[in-house]
C-alpha cells in the first residue's frame, strides 16, 4: 500500500525557503522604487522550472563568489513572492490579490515556464476577476495575443464582449480587438450579436454619429462615414449565420455600408438560398450549446458530414430543459419541426454527455444516417464513442412507453437503445445500433441534468 504525505513535505520545503544560509541564488525583481531581493536554492529552482534549468545549464546567468544572480525588472516583488512560495511549497493563495497582480503572475509564470501556475492564474482570472477583465480589455488583448498558451483567456474575453455587448463600453475596444473578434471561428455566440456589436462600435468610432445613432435621421454622408470606418470589417461577418428575420430587421437597414458585391451575394442567398461565392461561408460557434464545448461540436458535425467536408450546417435551438422545463416538450418540438435533429443530454452528478442525431424525427423512422454517441465530459476527445445505426427499421421511435409502473411519453433511438423518458436516460444494447453501453448485457440508467435539441439546417 502506497502512502502520500505531501502536506509535511510542503512544510519542510517551505522552511528551506526561509533558510538563507545555504542559498546560492540572488534574484533582483521589480524596477524603480518597487524592487526587492530574493534568495533561493539553484537545485530547487532547476527542479521546478524549465526556465531556471536552462539558465543554469547554459551558464548565461551571472555567477560571482559562488552566488548566481538574476535581474528580473519585468516581474513585480508581489508576483515573484507568489512564484517562489509555489516553487518551494506547491501552494498558491490568490484570494487577496488584485486582478493586476494575478495578470502579472500569469505573464511571469509563462516566462518562467511554470505551466501549472500559469493555468491556475488564467483560470482564477476568468472565474474570480471578471469585473477587472471587463475594465481592462485593451491591456489584456495587447498582452495575451503574444502568448499561445493564453487561448482560454482570449476566448473568454471575445465571448464575453460578443454575448453581452451592452455591458461593455465599446469606446474602450481597440480596432485590433474587433478584428480579432471577427476572425474567430469558434465563438459560442449568435452571428447577429457579432453584427450588432460591430455596428455599435462603428458608430462610436465615427465622428458625427456618436450623438446621432438614430439611422432614420441619417443622410448619405452619415452612411458613407460609417462605411469608411468599417471598411475591412464587413467582409469578416458570417452573413450565412444570420437568420432571414434578423437579416431583414437588423442588417438590411445598413445596406448602404455593405460593399456592393457582398450585398448582392447575401441578398441572393436570403432570397434564393444560393451560397455566396466570396462572402465568408462557415458560420462560427456552430452549436450554441451549454452542454458541450466547440471542439465536440466539430466532431459531431464531422460525424454528420461523413466524408462530405464541404457541407455547412446551422443548429437552431428548439428545446432546452433548463429553459423549457417540461421534459416531454422535447418530443413534441422535435416531431413538429420534422427535419434533422440533434439531441444532447448531460447527466446529473457526472460529466457524461450522451446524444443522438437523426435526419428525420417522426413517430417512426427508417434511416441509415442516424447515430448515437457519448463523451466522458464536455471536452472529451479521447474516450468518445459513436454508435451508428445497423438496422434502419425503427431507427427512431417515439410515443407512449412503460417504465416500471408508470407510462411516460418517450423518444428512443433504436427502441430502447438510447431512451429518453421522464427525467432519466436509459441505455441498452440491441440489434438496432452498434454497441454504446459499457456492458453487453446490462442496461445503464442516468438521471438527467440538462437536455438540448437542435434542428439541423444545411446551408
TrEMBL record:
All copies of domain BTB, residue ranges: 23-96
Pfam families assigned to the protein according to its UniProt record, in alphabetical order: BTB
Every TLDc domain range: 290-457
UniProt protein name: BTB/POZ domain-containing protein
Organism: Glomus cerebriforme
Amino acid at each position: 500500500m502506497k502512502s502520500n504525505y505531501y502536506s509535511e513535505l510542503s512544510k519542510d520545503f517551505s522552511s528551506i525557503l526561509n533558510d538563507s544560509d545555504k542559498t546560492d541564488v540572488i534574484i533582483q525583481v521589480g524596477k524603480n522604487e518597487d524592487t526587492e531581493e530574493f534568495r533561493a536554492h539553484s537545485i530547487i529552482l532547476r527542479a521546478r522550472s524549465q526556465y531556471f534549468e536552462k539558465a543554469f545549464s547554459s551558464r548565461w546567468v551571472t555567477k560571482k563568489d559562488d552566488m548566481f544572480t538574476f535581474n528580473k525588472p519585468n516581474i513585480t516583488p508581489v508576483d515573484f513572492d507568489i512564484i517562489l512560495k509555489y516553487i518551494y511549497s506547491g501552494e498558491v493563495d490568490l484570494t487577496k490579490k488584485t486582478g493586476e497582480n494575478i495578470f502579472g503572475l500569469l505573464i511571469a509564470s509563462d516566462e518562467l515556464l511554470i505551466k501549472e501556475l500559469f493555468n491556475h492564474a488564467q483560470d482564477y482570472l476568468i472565474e474570480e476577476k471578471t469585473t477587472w477583465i471587463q475594465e481592462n480589455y485593451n491591456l489584456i488583448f495587447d498582452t495575451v495575443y503574444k502568448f499561445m498558451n493564453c487561448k482560454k483567456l482570449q476566448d473568454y474575453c471575445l465571448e464575453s464582449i460578443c454575448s453581452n455587448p451592452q455591458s461593455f463600453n465599446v469606446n474602450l475596444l481597440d480596432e485590433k480587438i474587433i478584428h480579432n473578434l471577427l476572425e474567430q471561428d469558434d465563438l459560442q455566440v449568435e452571428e447577429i450579436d457579432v453584427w450588432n456589436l460591430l455596428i455599435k462600435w462603428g458608430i462610436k468610432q465615427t465622428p458625427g454619429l456618436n450623438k446621432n445613432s438614430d439611422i432614420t435621421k441619417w443622410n448619405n454622408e452619415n452612411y458613407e462615414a460609417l462605411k469608411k470606418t468599417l471598411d475591412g470589417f464587413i467582409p469578416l461577418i458570417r452573413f450565412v449565420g444570420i437568420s432571414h428575420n434578423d437579416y431583414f430587421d437588423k442588417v438590411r437597414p445598413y445596406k448602404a455600408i455593405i460593399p456592393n458585391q457582398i450585398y448582392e451575394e447575401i441578398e441572393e442567398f436570403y432570397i434564393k438560398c444560393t451560397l455566396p461565392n466570396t462572402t465568408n461561408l462557415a458560420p462560427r460557434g456552430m452549436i450554441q450549446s451549454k452542454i458541450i464545448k466547440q471542439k465536440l461540436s466539430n466532431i459531431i458535425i464531422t460525424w454528420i458530414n461523413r466524408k462530405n467536408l464541404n457541407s455547412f450546417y446551422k443548429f437552431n435551438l428548439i428545446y432546452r430543459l433548463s429553459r423549457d422545463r417540461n421534459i416531454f416538450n422535447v418530443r413534441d418540438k422535435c416531431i413538429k419541426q420534422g427535419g434533422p435533429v440533434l439531441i444532447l443530454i448531460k447527466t446529473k452528478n457526472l460529466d457524461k454527455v450522451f446524444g443522438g442525431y437523426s435526419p428525420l424525427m417522426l413517430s417512426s423512422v427508417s434511416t441509415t444516417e442516424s447515430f448515437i454517441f457519448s463523451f466522458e465530459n464536455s471536452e472529451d476527445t479521447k474516450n468518445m464513442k459513436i454508435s451508428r445505426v445497423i438496422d434502419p427499421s425503427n431507427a427512431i421511435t417515439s410515443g407512449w412507453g412503460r417504465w416500471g409502473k408508470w407510462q411516460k411519453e418517450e423518444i428512443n433511438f433504436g427502441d430502447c437503445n438510447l431512451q429518453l423518458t421522464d427525467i432519466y436516460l436509459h441505455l441498452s444494447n440491441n440489434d438496432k445500433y452498434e454497441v454504446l453501453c459499457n456492458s453487453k448485457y446490462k442496461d445503464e440508467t442516468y438521471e438527467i441534468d440538462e437536455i438540448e435539441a437542435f434542428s439541423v439546417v444545411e446551408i
